[in-house]
Design a protein that fits this description.
Blueprint lengths: L1 E2 L2 H11 L7 E5 L3 H12 L7 E5 L5 H8 L10 E5 L6 H11 L7 E6 L5 H8 L1 E4 L5 H18 L3 E2 L3 H9 L3 H15 L4 E2 L1 H7 L5 H14 L10 H23 L7 H4 L5 H14 L1 H20 L4 H16 L1
Parallel strand pairs: 1-6, 2-5, 2-6, 3-4, 4-5, 7-8
Helix pairs in contact: 4-5, 6-8, 7-10, 10-11, 11-13, 11-14, 14-15
């Protein structure tokens, strides 16, 4: 059995425990923190069993077999946790596959891997696989957003809808960092029931996304041909969208003749000097520039999801097209 959804996998564990848990589990999860959490979620249901922790870079299958095929003196079944299974040699990996297919297996084998291995197919037949190895960036972001909302709800708080996109803009999709920031935010708001966007600005320090934010500013506002790593494509998209939406908001504020002293309530993130600079730029560029820019951004994001073009080419296309819109 294979799960490509973390929530469904957890439901399986909850419904199978304690009497119907499988003998073999594999967590194929690229992120070390998330893989560790997945293994801990499985191991939670074996808290009364002795367990041995091994690493694929050092372990040999004989160690695993000795632990799993030998009954203990006290009658409890052993649990072997083998992480980084992808580091095992071909012979050792094949021996592990043979071991997983052996019936009956005395004890439980919990494996973790950063990527798909030959174990995936074997464990899918012999047990259960959590397979996030091929998870798309947008699917991961959606999953992490759901986990953030659940974490906040479990803490007895609510999270403003515009706070989650900001967390991704500033921190990326690092699950460990996001969990840490949510814990800090829950403590920061104290007795307040709602975590607001402004709280994220006060508490959460920008990591590598600061560079992406600056890149987005240069592309949108300055018309620079800023270089961007194609690997950061899906992290740069929200930053570009935010800059274009800011420009659109500024042109709307001008068109509606909203008093200047009220602008900061609509755009709390912008410092007064930056707000003055951006408002002048927005007036010069015009509303159609930001509207067309958002439409163009939607097009390249859609193309990236269909696999029709490489991210580097899409970024070049966006920059060049935006330059022509500017003119």
């Amino acid at each position: 059995m294979r799960y490509q959804n973390l929530r469904a996998f957890r439901k399986h564990l909850a419904s199978a425990a304690p009497d119907h848990l499988c003998r073999c589990y594999l967590a194929a999860v690229p992120d070390d923190y998330e893989r560790g959490m997945a293994l801990q979620a499985i191991l939670f249901h074996f808290s009364d069993c002795p367990h041995i922790t091994l690493n694929g870079g050092e372990a040999v299958c004989r160690q695993v077999a000795d632990a799993l095929l030998s009954p203990t003196l006290f009658g409890s079944e052993p649990v072997v946790v083998l992480d980084e299974a992808e580091k095992m040699g071909k012979k050792e990996l094949q021996a592990l596959i043979d071991l997983a297919g052996r019936s009956p297996l005395y004890g439980y084998l919990l494996c973790g891997a950063r990527s798909k291995t030959a174990l995936t197919a074997a464990f899918e037949k012999a047990g259960v696989v959590l397979d996030l190895a091929d998870e798309k960036p947008w699917d991961k972001e959606k999953r992490l957003a759901e986990q953030i909302a659940e974490r906040v709800q479990n803490a007895g708080k609510r999270l403003a809808s515009d706070a989650i996109p900001l967390l991704f803009e500033r921190l990326g999709s690092d699950a460990a960092l996001l969990d840490s920031e949510i814990d800090k935010l829950v403590c920061f708001v104290g007795t307040r029931p709602m975590i607001e966007r402004s709280d994220v600005f006060r508490v959460s320090a920008a990591s590598r996304e600061l560079t992406l934010w600056q890149t987005a500013e240069e592309i949108v506002w300055e018309g620079e041909s800023a270089s961007a790593d194609p690997a950061t494509f899906h992290s740069l998209i929200p930053a570009l969208r935010s800059q274009l939406q800011t420009g659109l908001k500024l042109t709307d504020l001008c068109a509606s003749k909203t008093p200047r002293e009220e602008w900061t309530s609509y755009l709390p993130r912008l410092w007064p000097k930056i707000l003055e600079k951006r408002s002048a730029q927005a007036a010069r560029l015009g509303r159609s520039f930001f509207k067309n820019g958002l439409d163009l951004l939607f097009q390249i994001e859609l193309l990236s999801r269909t696999g029709a073009a490489h991210e580097a080419a899409l970024l070049d296309f966006f920059r060049i097209s935006l330059h022509h819109i500017r003119r």
